[in-house]
């Protein structure tokens, strides 16, 4: 058994969160998210984020499909496919939710130009969809992408938060306990794969994790900021 230098019996993913704590906190405690939590959020920033995230989630569909395909081909545990399929199923519901929410806020999803940070994030997804990228790398990225939103929005649901009532549904979408469980399932899968992966694959997964954090920070800033 290989034991990494920071490995104290926890999974690799938990180790990386600690190791990149500053960046992780910048991704999960972004000023935009904090403004939702303290009730000072600028509604036009929220509407911009909504339109940009819809574009991102549409790109997330083929990414998830590619993760599913790799799990089906390369995973040694049948339940991986079920967890990922569950994620794909809820994406279907999520896209409908975006359309409903957008019409509620008078956001026209058809006419939105993706921000540069969004285009770059989608490009990262596309690079991870390539067949030569290992399952361990993409499942790690997938876990990180979902977990950043889970951590961010659950913050807005904590007791003492002043999240405006009309944004509660958005926060519950990613901040709810069921979504947290789903993120934990993804984390267990990622940790299991990373434990068995050769060193160069683990290094690539770590890079993908850091890259997701960087892109999430950029996404929050640019999607909620002035266009
Ligand atoms: C940018 C971004 N990251 C993560 C998620 C979670 O699905 C999302 N919807 N959008």
The biggest sheet, with number of strands, parallel, antiparallel or mixed sense and barrel status, is: none
Q: In CATH's first tier, which class applies?
A: Mainly Alpha
Distance between the termini: 50 Å
Total of helices:
10
Mean pLDDT: 94
Beta-strand proportion: under 5%
* Fold-level CATH name: Heme Oxygenase, Chain A
Strand-pairing-aware structural class? mainly alpha
> What's the structural domain tally?
1
Rg calculated over all Cα atoms: 17 Å
* Bound molecule kinds, no repeats: 4-amino-5-hydroxymethyl-2-methylpyrimidine
What is the approximate shape? globular
Q: How many β-strands, per DSSP?
A: 0
Q: pLDDT under 50 segments (min length 5)?
A: none
Secondary-structure element string: HHHHHHHHHH
Helix content: over 70%
Write the CATH architecture name. Answer: Up-down Bundle
Identify the CATH homologous superfamily: Heme oxygenase-like
Summarize the structure.
The protein has ten helices and no strands. It has 227 residues and is an all-alpha fold.
3D architecture notes:
The chain has 227 residues and is mainly alpha-helical. The protein has a single domain, classed as Up-down Bundle (Heme Oxygenase, Chain A). The chain is built from 10 helices and no strands. The longest helix is centred in the first third of the chain and has 32 residues, at 43-74. The protein starts with 11 loop residues before the first helix and ends with a helix. The protein binds 4-amino-5-hydroxymethyl-2-methylpyrimidine (HMH). Residues 53, 56-57, 145-146, 148-149, 216, 219 line the site of 4-amino-5-hydroxymethyl-2-methylpyrimidine. Belongs to the thiaminase-2 family.
């Amino acid at each position: 058994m290989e034991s990494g230098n920071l490995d104290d019996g926890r999974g690799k993913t938990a180790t990386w969160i600690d190791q990149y704590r500053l960046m992780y906190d910048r991704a999960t405690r972004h000023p935009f998210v904090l403004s939702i939590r303290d009730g000072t959020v600028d509604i036009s920033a929220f509407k911009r984020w909504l339109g940009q995230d819809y574009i991102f989630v549409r790109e997330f569909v083929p990414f998830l499909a590619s993760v599913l395909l790799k799990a089906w081909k390369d995973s040694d545990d049948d339940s991986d496919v079920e967890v990922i399929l569950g994620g794909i199923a809820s994406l279907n519901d999520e896209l409908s939710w975006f359309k409903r929410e957008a019409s509620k806020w008078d956001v026209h999803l058809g006419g939105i130009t993706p921000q540069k940070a969004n285009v770059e994030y989608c490009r990262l997804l596309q690079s991870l969809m390539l067949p030569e990228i290992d399952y361990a790398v993409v499942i790690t990225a997938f876990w990180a992408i979902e977990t950043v939103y889970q951590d961010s929005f659950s913050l807005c649901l904590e007791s003492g938060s002043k999240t405006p009532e009309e944004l509660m549904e958005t926060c519950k979408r990613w901040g709810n306990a069921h979504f947290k469980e789903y993120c934990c399932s993804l984390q267990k899968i990622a940790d299991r794969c990373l434990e068995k992966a050769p060193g160069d694959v683990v290094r690539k997964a770590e890079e993908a994790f850091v890259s997701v954090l960087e892109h999430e920070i950029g996404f929050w800033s640019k999607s909620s900021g002035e266009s």
